[in-house]
Amino acid sequence: MLSVNEIIRSAEASAQELFKLIDEDISVYNQKKVLDAFRECKVSYHHFNPTTGYAYDDAGREKLAEVFAKVFGAEKAIVSPNIVSGTHALTVALFGLLKAGDTLVGATGAPYDTLQEVIGGENNGSLRDYGINYKEFALKNDKIDIESVSEYLREHKPAVVMITRSRGYSWRDALSVEEIGEAVNAFRKAYAGVTVLVDNCYGEFVEKIEPTEAGADVIAGSLIKNPGGGLAPTGGYIAGKEAAVTRIGYRLTAPSIGTEVGSYYQSYMPFFEGLFFAPSVVASSLKGAILAANALGSLGYEVKPATGEMPRDIICSVKFNAREPMISFIQGIQYASPVESYATPEPWAMPGYDDEVIMAAGTFVQGASIELSSDAPVREPYIAYLQGGLTYQHCKIALAECLKRILKG
């Protein structure tokens, strides 16, 4: 049997073409795009200053939103430390775009666990409680069933279609921006009045363009994932068409004030600096996902993305088909973390999830999944989701620890 070091060396050698594409093409392109946005928007030191109270004319808040809009090819953006997660960003967007009697269409099957209660929960303030209908379409061969969704749009004219770019806790590859753009164009031909919302979590800067540049009306995500670059301490963003984002802003605060207020009594610098670092950090995460897929694939585990494939988000999914090796793998990630490496994660009843979840997240920002982390619902077929990595070197070291554990078992 090969040693752990030999397995990793072989996995790394087979990844060189993809690594070169990431380092010399994708990340350079995205870094220039971000730099150009900073220059065009004239970011200055005074934009880092904290504010208090209502924060009318908060230069930092307004400039940060302007830069995000420019980077994502959007007309307007909301970037707020008061958005607590990706689920929160999507919830605000949905409540801003939908009203009683409207229908939301899920075009990528069941949404992520925490969003299911937002859509269909009972007596918890869900969309369903407010008289908003929901129609879901399963993926067809892991792709959007464009024909079926389009037929529904032509006949029923729903208000919003939601596309989830990443895999959530599903066994599938993430969607490419090209696939999303193809679906958006088809949906708009079927019903020109539909608004397309994309859950962009885990996908920012993985490709050269974002869904807003491929026709989506609105994208939303978390700042403690890709676009925060590992430096943003909290927050979320929403970006897209001006009319849609303006409506969403009324739900974030109040219809009378929208995005005109909102203070942050700390420096805005980590948000700006995190965005600037994001293309490089995402490149490290992508390379870590490829290395893990190659190494674990060589040991006979089923992985997504498959060995030799370019990831479409920063996640590597590993199907262990047994409880213990999955738990050992995730515990290895915690042990190889810079924060609370001494802790041993165990499955627990995490709020918002139907099954017990085990999560390794020894991160500087609590729960930040742009930092190296791993989690899994404890249910068959026991799939672990590995994501993030501020540096490729950390991904490599942590993978070695995980391989030692599962090979020993």
From TrEMBL:
Pfam families: Met_gamma_lyase. InterPro entries: Met_g_lyase_put (IPR009651), PyrdxlP-dep_Trfase (IPR015424), PyrdxlP-dep_Trfase_major (IPR015421). This is Methionine gamma-lyase family protein. It comes from Candidatus Stercoripulliclostridium pullicola. Gene3D superfamilies: Methioning gamme-lyase, C-terminal domain, Type I PLP-dependent aspartate aminotransferase-like (Major domain).
